[in-house]
Amino acid sequence: MRTSAGQFLLLILSVIASSGAIGIRGTEGPRAQCAVDSPRSRATSSSPFVPVRARVVRHLGSYAEPISGIDLSPDGKHLLIGFEARKSGVCLCDVNTGEEIRRFEGHTEPVTDVAFLSDGRHAVSCASSGEHVLRLWDLQTGQQVGALPGPQDHLFSFRSLSCSPHGEYVAAGADDGFVRMWHLGTRRIVRSFRGPSRREGFWKYRSVVFSPDGRRILAAANHPPPTDDGADHILCLWDVRTGWRIRAFRGHVKYIRSVAFLPDGAYAVSGSIDETVRLWNLETGHEVRRFSGIARPVTSVASSPDGRFVAGGSDSTVQVWDTETGQKVCELRNQHGWVLDMEFLPDGQRLITAQHKVAPGSDGPNRDDIVLLWELEGLRQMQGNAEKDPPEYKER
Predict the structure, then answer these.
(1) Residue 38 pLDDT more than 50?
(2) Deepest of 16, 55, 256, 376, by most Cβ within 10 A of its Cβ?
(3) Residue 181: Cβ-neighbour burial (10 angstroms; 0-12, 13-18, 19+)
(4) d(CA 145, CA 137)
(5) Which pLDDT value is given to residue 50?
(6) SS3 of 287, please?
(7) For the chain, which domains are there?
(8) pLDDT of 8 strictly over 70
C-alpha cells in the first residue's frame, strides 16, 4: 500500500514547495467540529445541520522507525504496522488497548507493505529491492510460516499488497510494470497483470486492491517521468480469472497515491498528489464525483464499510465526505504530519490514521511517526437517516 518515508517526503516536498498555508476549519487540538447541510439532513431532522465531531480516543503508538503502511484485521481488533526497519519490520498491536503484541523478524530490507489474510490469523509482508519473496506470518506465534517467491531476477521493489476476500490469492504491485498474483495453496505466481503498453520504462504500481467479491483487481499506475496531461497517471482494472485488463481510468494529472473499492464493488475512490479525491464508476469508466475542499496533495483514501462515506488524507488533515451528496461532513485535524495510511473500523464510526510526524521548522521526519484512533461522533445518526436503497451517483 505504501512507499518509503524518504521517497514519500521528497515527493510531497517537491509538490508543495511553493504553496501556501492551509486554511483551518473548526477548532485546533484533538477535537474538531464541522457540519453538513445536505438535502437528506434537512429532510430528516428539525435542524438543518447534522453535527459530526471528530476526536482522538487513543494513541496506538509512537514509533522511532518510519511507518510504511498499516492494515486492519477483518474483525477490527488488531492492527498490522509495517516499518522501514530491516530486522523488526512488522508489528502487531491491539486496537482496543494500543498494546504492542509482538514484532516479526526476518526481513533483510525495509518493509514496504503489510496485509492480513482473510482468516485473520496470518499475514503477509513485502520489502524493497533485494528481497525476492513475500513473507507469510503466523500471528499467534510470530513465526514465518512460508514465502511467496517472486521472479529470481527481480530487482525492483514490491510496493503494495492485497489479499483476496476468500483467502485464495495475494496480489503485489511492483516497480517493474507488473502486478503479480500468487495462489496461497501452491504458493506460485498464477497471474501477472500489465498496464497499457509503453515505449520505454515501467508502470509503477503504488496501490493495489482486490474487489469485495475477489473477481477484479484495481491498481494505481504511475509512469515516470511525470507529465501534466494525465497520461502517466491512471487506474487499471483487471479480471482475476482471465488476467485481461478490463479498463484504464484517466483523469488524474499527478501521482496517484491510493485507491479503494466501495463495498458494492461498482465504484472506487482514488486520491492523488494533484489534490483531488475522485469517485469512479467501474462499469463505464467515468468519473462521477470529485470531492471538494482539498488544498494539499492527497496521500491516502478509504471507504466506510457501508460505502456511505469516503475519507481523504493529506497534510495533518483527513476530510470525510458523503458519497451520495458529495458534501463534506467532517474534518479531522491535528499536528502530526502527513497521513500515510488510514482504515475505517467495521463499525464505521472510528478511523485509524498512520502519520509521518514532521518536527516544526525541520525538513524531515523527527523519527516519531504516530498511529491514532479517531471517533467520528454523529456518523451513526447520519447513517440512520440514510435511504435504505443503495445510492445512485449522477455522472459528471
Answers:
(1) no
(2) 256
(3) buried
(4) 5
(5) 55
(6) strand
(7) 5-14+34-384 (2.130.10.10)
(8) no
